[in-house]
Amino acid sequence: MVVGIANxxxxxxxxxxxxxxxxxxxxxxxxxxxxxFEKKVEVDEENKNLVEFIGEYxxxxxxxxxxxxxxxxxxxxxxxx
Length: 81
Fold this sequence. Notes:
The chain starts with a helix and ends with a helix. The protein has helices at 2-6, 13-40, 48-77. By secondary structure, it is an all-alpha fold. Helix 2 packs antiparallel against helix 3. It has one domain (2-77).
């Protein structure tokens, strides 16, 4: 993605924005689907800490990805990039 951003001046910005918005929506939809599994999984006391750790880790990564993707979209829309 970094190479694509560096060469954005050679492509249609509207197309880039459409692709990035679609990617953002896809990530959000996938995340909501994964979060639904959390309610269905039975966790025993032995695995509780591990499940919590993994859940927090994945949540932080997804939140981080969505945040920076949205920041990129904003920067492209404002033509700062």
